[in-house]
What we know:
Layout lengths: L1 E2 L10 H8 L5 E3 L11 H7 L5 E4 L2 H10 L5 E3 L20 E5 L5 H5 L2 H10 L3 E6 L11 E5 L5 H5 L4 E4 L5 H4 L4 H8 L4 E4 L4 H4 L7 E3 L2 H13 L1 H19 L1 H20 L4
Parallel strand pairs: 1-2, 2-3, 3-4, 5-6, 5-8, 6-7, 8-9, 9-10
Amino acid sequence: MISGSAKPLDAACEFEREIIRRGASYILHLQDDWLSIPYLKPQLEARLPLASLVVVPTEPLKQRLLEFSRDLPIEVWDEPVDVNRLAPPSRRPAVSIIAWTGTSYSMKYLELIGGILERLQHEVPFRLRLIFDRKPKVRLPLSMELFHYRPESEIEGLGGASAGLAPLDGSPYTCCKGCYKTKTYMAAGVPPVASAVGFHNSLIDSGTNGFLVKDKEEWESALRTLLTDPARAAEMGRKAREKAIRHFSHEVVMPQWIRALKSRFGPQLEPKK
């Protein structure tokens, strides 16, 4: 199985063609709508005809790909999250933290709520922590700190945060997303505050393990609640992690993947005698 851009992309798909020549089935695990990203669209169009199976995290993304080709062998499988690696620390930070994790590409969504965060920071003290794998170009009108992303230390950046931010713009691209960022917050015991867009509406039980928000008033209200009521933030974070463990942990999801693979490729998965 090849997950998205796990291997260097090239229009000739040499890596994919080589594994097919060796008798393997090529399974493409797609996490986002590449058809909406100009530089990735040609790469996806070259790979789809080669795939024995395309795996996506949401039904909207499946339908988006079927618009490109009605004959695609495509299935929706949950994306697992490593709840063990993201086990939250027992102690909360001395100052209130609002966390956001992402890439330079997704920074544009955070910038949508920059003004909201600036106003709120004047009322309720908190530290905005941005978790990146490389130093971003940040254009936000408020004080913040950068935390370098590494898988083994990610929980140090997220652990004990009062809220995890997941703003989206409601475009076809964001409506197809599997919202892995939000799953990460939940696994880390951080209550997400997320745009009521796409898969977020299935992930979050608003008011119980996070908040779904639709406008700037709801953004401010949700964040103010979590910042000023630490006990409620902690309880919502606990319930968010419980849901992540029950529905998205490796222990739950990977057996589902194995059963699905055996159902489709059973004879090929049997060891050769």
